[in-house]
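Worked example 3. Consider a protein that binds FO1.
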Amino acid sequence: MKQKILALCGGVGGAKLAYGLSQLTTPEEIVFLVNTGDDFIHLDLHISPDLDTVMYTLAGVNDPKKGWGVKEETWNALGSLKKYGLDTWFQLGDKDLATHIRRTQLLKEGLKLSEVTRNLSSQLGLKHNILPMSESPVQTMIQTDQGKLSFQEYFVKHKCDPKIEKIEFLGSEVAEVPTSLEELIKDDKFTGIIICPSNPYLSVDPILSINKIRTFLLETNIPILAVSPIIDNDSIKGPTAKIMDEMKVEPSVNAIAAHYSELINILVIDQKDKDNQANIGSIDYLVDSIYMKNNEDKVSLAKVCLEELRKLA
Ligand code: FO1
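Given these inputs, the predicted complex is written out as structure tokens:
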């Protein structure tokens, strides 16, 4: 039987596995469902950081060092904006800026975010289906010891420094799930689900905060696999471990298993954690090398995930 996978992804870590998956599947065999809780309006432009990170990574034009933005970027527009006295804490490169200008233009013309994403990704030569988790805004808001901050204020402006007290997803109760996703769910088309190694609290939970998506994951009989964003009690990249500390959760693969315990059948963990598998619900563990330092690693991990889902189906 042919596979049809739904892959839930945030930014950098999620995009790496998404790249591997895209190399092993046809566009009909996978849907990348991407967090848009980080989206915001900046300089009158609609910025969708995670959609862009996934899109750029799949197209091979991403900046591998930063993990976000476009490679071989120039920063002339940002320099000029600075001269005009505008706020430049959020760095927009010249090539990246074109994406935000075009997205904003197409949204103003009345296209839905999924249609805009399809338009932009096909201009980048992509055939794979990248979908926003919602057509309507769902905003990740973070209550911290320094007040309530939007995701980008917390992540970029304050460099994840404030202590997190609570995370909310504004608009999730009225989120408009893309019609094409609703149809695939209704028609029982998916054979497996992958939760990519993105930050569970800031990148995956916004997707799961949408009732139709969470209910689908809770009620479906198809296998659900997650890849741990934690190796050896630390984040692979980004603030996952710091946030877990602040939430009084020990950063470990067991905490990740517990976080997803209602949803997943299997958690893929790193060799370094092979002796740390606690018995949590009915979750199994699969041990592999999950640190993706190059494209070969991304494809190799993707292969393990797809094969496991095939076995479990
Ligand atoms: N992340 C930063 O840490 N600093 C930035 O100045 C920055 C700019 C930026 C511009 C466009 C874009 O698509 C992403 C950008 N990011 C930046 C990443 C962004 O904050 C993402 O939301 C995170 O990587 C989380 O996935």
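Take a moment to read the result before moving on. The pocket of FO1 is lined by residues 10-12, 38, 47, 49-50, 52, 68-69, 90-92, 96, 152, 155-156 (CB under 6 Å). Residues 9 and 34 are 5 Å apart (CA to CA).
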